[in-house]
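discrete fold record:
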Amino acid sequence: MIREKAKEVIRKEARAVLDLEKKIDDQFVKAVELILKCKGRVIVTGMGKSGIIGKKIAATLTSTGTAAFFLHPAEATHGDLGMVRKKKDVVIAITKSGDTDELYQLIPLFKRLAVPVITLTGNPHSPVAEKSDVVIDVSVGEEACPHNMVPTSSTTATLVMGDALAIALLEERHFSSEDFALLHPGGQLGRKLLLRVGDIMHTGDQIPIVSEETNMKDVILEMTSKRLGTTTVVNEKGELVGIFTDGDLRRLVEKTDEIFSLKAKQAMTKNPKTIHGEELAAKALNMMESYSITSLIITNGKKEPIGIVHLHDILKAGVV
């Protein structure tokens, strides 16, 4: 019985959402166009459950390139109306009944500020709707509650309509994944699309460097002292010519007991993989995976090593 009741709630709310498709009309298009022309911000307002949904809609708009914030209707009439900028902002009012007193009292004030009002309501012919510039119908056939009272299907439908507005605006603004990353630098996507190799590479004295003529004992000391499991090898001009890794060392030990008689140029791997410092750290990770390596070297225009990035640096930065 419990499972069936829960499933029925989901079915009712799913029907409410599907019915919204028929309500994407000229009013919806007008709402999008009004917001696109807005020189200020989108102010979302609503009481009770509508207000909670409004906060989420405002957050979604803001994170997808449309500056928005939530304004509590009751606080608006006690000073917070000063947050609304005359002739610049756009209001999205949310009300299931369309006769919420607090919202009804606000509409004339918004009008006085020459701010257009878009209303999302379950009653398109209500007092609030009649005073609005644009009315988007989010009415539902029934709430998921057995008494058809508790806002359930209606709040879900309103939330989805808000998402539809946000994504329509996103598309019209040509809002890219890079734009999204700029607004979410703390998230994994932000780090993938924003973090550069140059932001996390080791530089200066942290770079392990030996010359071609360095004996193997000093090569190993340089590699282990810098704790990157590798060292770059340069020629007399300071140009990168090779790399020597702990993997190279293990393979060398398996082949000969005379490793300390060798020089760096005899044991190094030639033509090591490099990457530009302006490349994304995510690209560096892909290269490491493709070539089964754990380090990449960054060089300048003179082919001199100016940085090195290790797999652990990328993982520590939270790119994956």
Observations:
- Residues 197-316 form a domain with the CBS-domain fold (CATH 3.10.580.10).
